[in-house]
Amino acid sequence: EQPLLEISGLHTSFDTFDGKVRAVDGVDLAVHPGKTLCVVGESGCGKSVTARSILRLIEDSGSIDAGTVTWNGDLIDGTGEAFDVLTLDPGDKRLQKLRGGDVGMIFQEPAASLLQLRTVGAQLVETLRLHTGLDKKAARAKAIELLDTVGIPDAARRVDAYPFQLSGGMCQRVMIAIALCANPSLLIADEPTTALDVTTQARILDLIRSLQAEHRMAVMFITHDLGVVAELADEVAVMYLGRVVERASVEELFADPKHPYTKALLASVPVLGRDRGRDLPTIPGAVPSPLHRPSGCSFHPRCAEAIAGTCDVEAPPEVDFGNGRTAECVLYETEGVRA
Ligand code: SF4
Ligand code: MG
């Protein structure tokens, strides 16, 4: 089936006092209608920057240097053609339609993403009216219903609250309600439940799943929580230092991880789905700064299977095992096809 969204050869960098940081260094990903892609990896591996690059929400110090982000949504629903989001004019209507409409986004910092001087209800009603065509009264009723669904107690009263009057967890739920209100065909969620209690977390994952079942919403879910991956993912992409080092279905990834980094991540997750709420196990050594990227395979200083004289010198090939399964590691050079 045709992917809803296809990222190809994405490079995003940031200027810092110490030099240029290649945060995303050649990423290829695809998300399919009705499916969940989990992007997993330690912090600083480029997951969030990849997500933000899709709708070009990169700070001023950053730039998207290369790649394409192909949106096939309009083609799939018969309303238009496929297009590359990265080449759209900033004023292009299609970009506005994606942001908050066809693509709902939930970020890590709710306080920064909500407008502090407008009520929760006003922000929801505006998004609803812009993208769904509901009238004011219907939009307000829908807003209250959504706030209730994401677990905000006394939603009929809190709809008129300002974000600064709400706790961080409440703001997080409001952001989730805003992201979901226009029935997006893609939801991009960056660690959306990390700050929430287990009950609310479960409720929000259930809500995402039911929306997915109802109208084939695709989900790109960024997390470092392997329990959430086991529970939610269809496909998984493992990132390390700005690159996708392994891609697999969730079953294959847990049953037969290929990349030594993936193996290390999974080393202490014995039973699928049992470890919700658990962070990635610690792997010896720290993630190197993308400013001082190791030579050869960037995982080699931490890799239990590194081959001296090879892994520290040569960038590993990306090996394609078929069926969307890949690993970027020299150990599989003879097993699959070089991608
Ligand atoms: Fe380890 Fe070498 Fe594979 Fe890199 S290429 S993951 S260092 S074995
Ligand atoms: Mg992040």
Automatic annotation (TrEMBL):
Residues 5-266 form the ABC transporter domain. GO terms for molecular function: ATP binding; ATP hydrolysis activity. Keywords: ATP-binding, Cell inner membrane, Cell membrane, Membrane, Nucleotide-binding, Translocase, Transport. It comes from the Bacteria. It is found in: Cell membrane. InterPro entries: AAA+_ATPase, ABC_Ni/Peptide_Import, ABC_transporter-like_ATP-bd, ABC_transporter-like_CS, Oligopep_ABC_C, P-loop_NTPase. It is a peripheral membrane protein. It holds the Pfam family oligo_HPY. GO terms for biological process: peptide transport. Its main location: membrane. One of its GO terms (cellular component) is plasma membrane. NCBIfam families: oligo_HPY. Belongs to the ABC transporter superfamily. This is Peptide/nickel transport system ATP-binding protein. It comes from Glycomyces harbinensis. The lineage of its organism: Bacteria, Bacillati, Actinomycetota, Actinomycetes, Glycomycetales.
